[in-house]
Amino acid sequence: MQGQVVGLESQLSDLRFNVGNVVDELHLSKECLAAADAEIAKLESDVSGLLEKQTFLEDQIKRSDAEKMEMKSNEVKLEAEINALKTGLASRDERIEALNKDFDKHKLRYDMLMAERDGVCAEVDNLKAEMRARDIQIKQMEEQQPDGLQADRACV
After folding, report:
1. How do residues 117-152 score in pLDDT, each as one tens digit?
2. In a 3-state reduction of DSSP, which class is residue 113?
3. DSSP string over 54-110
4. What is the C-alpha separation between 127 and 116, in angstroms, rounded?
């Protein structure tokens, strides 16, 4: 029986040792679990921050896409306006060219009329000179005539 007691004591000692080891392992496991919980909380916080950042970036992408669409719309409007202005300029150029041609015709007509007027003025000047010359000639002839003819002429 004493052998049994010694065996049981030995077994009890082994069990106590094993319980101590299990308690130590339990404490170590609790520490590991606490560290894992802290790491999980940190990761959850990081995930939450990343989700917020993702939401912010998605909103930014939506705004950028909306701005891009608006800019595209403005570009189309401006291109249409540019084309309308180009058409207007082409039309004005055609009208200006037609007006310039018409002006050139009128200027040519004016120049021709001025040349004709100058010719007429020269002809009038020649006729006036001829008339003066004839008047002088008539006066000279009258002066050379006897007085009797001048009196007859005065009566007429």
Report:
1. 999 999 999 999 999 999 999 999 999 987 655 555
2. helix
3. HHHHHHHHHHHHHHHHHHHHHHHHHHHHHHHHHHHHHHHHHHHHHHHHHHHHHHHHH
4. 16
Q: What does the DSSP assignment read for 117-132?
A: HHHHHHHHHHHHHHHH
Q: Encode burial over 27-48: b for 16+ CB neighbours within 10 A, e otherwise.
A: eeeeeeeeeeeeeeeeeeeeee
Q: Distance (Å, rounded) from C-alpha 80 to C-alpha 77?
A: 5
Condensed to tens digits (0 to 9), the pLDDT of residues 52-95 reads 999 999 999 999 999 999 999 999 999 999 999 999 999 999 99
- In the chain, where are the structural domains located? 2-155
DSSP secondary structure string, 12-30? HHHHHHHHHHHHHHHHHHH
